[in-house]
Amino acid sequence: MDWIMAAIDTTTEGIEPVCGRLYALGITGTEIEDAADFNDFLENDTKYWDYIDESLLYKKTAPTRVKVYLTDDEHGRAQLSAIRQSMAELKALDEEGRFGTLDANLTNMKEQDWAENWKQYYKPLKVGDKILIKPEWEPLADDEGRTVFHINPGMSFGTGTHESTQLCIESLEKHIAAGDNVLDLGCGSGILSIIALLLGAKSALAVDIDPNAVKIAKENAARNGIGADAYTAIAADILSDEAARRQVSAQQYDVVLANIVADVIIALAPFAKAVTKPGGTFITSGIILARKDDVRAALEAAGFTIQSICDKREWCSVTAIN
Q1: Is 160 annotated to bind ligand?
Q2: Residue 43 CB neighbours (<10 A)
Q3: Are 307 and 271 in contact (CB under 8 A)?
Q4: What is the mean pLDDT of residues 17-28?
Q5: Which of 57, 134, 262, 315 could potentially form a cystine with 163 if both were Cys, beta carbons 3.0 to 4.6 Å apart?
Q6: Is 259 annotated as a binding residue?
Q7: Is residue 314 assigned to a domain?
Q8: Do 313 and 201 share a structural domain?
Q9: Is the domain of 179 the same as that of 242?
Q10: What stretches pass through the bilayer (predicted)?
């Protein structure tokens, strides 16, 4: 299958509202390119300068973009039309021009091209104190005693390279316990809930609005030796699908994960409160620093107690206890 890559020109400040609107359209797989993040890496991680491929240095001055990948068929073109309409609406609301042009630049991609791009740039990555994320095509001589998560991200993002995912993993390491059951809201590639199982959780239910994400999450679970008895993934919009809400809330969970965007986390807070066990943990991320207090207030209003707030560059994670 061929694909259309739509790269939406925005700003660092515009990333969250753009991603929020994409999520509302059922598009949860996004790739974020932000020169601010890359330049921060160059300034603060000087020991790695010798290992930076010269082909990546364009990122120092590259525009900030949110990329999405759509199937090159009638469904994908309908999604593209909806994206353009939503970006036009956002631009009309942005009277001060803080979110950039919001233009969507298109590139046609062959399936093979996509696979080769991942193989070229995606390498094993250490996250937190315990996790090593390894793309399936990369050899690994030494896991250094870490728990290895094997991934083929396909068309669904959640690879561990983004700060929001790393923050969630670091919080998971602190809060997951043997035998826990986990709920992953907005699972993407399934990385968080699968890692929870690798760290000792007993079962996980993963939910995403994008059926393609659910398919890839199931594949990644199998890739890591996790069977259907421990891992369930469903395609649903928890905010609007009553049948899905009933299915998910049939039990309570020791750990609930939501690595999405601030507005969706805020909307999910009462539901998350209802499905988190007393004493259980709600780990949220995908939050830009400017929205940290909004998320904190929403979680406290829902009845959670804030346990910790951690940040990396422009992103933060809020962990709360029920």
Answers
A1: no
A2: 8
A3: no
A4: 88
A5: 315
A6: yes
A7: yes
A8: yes
A9: yes
A10: none
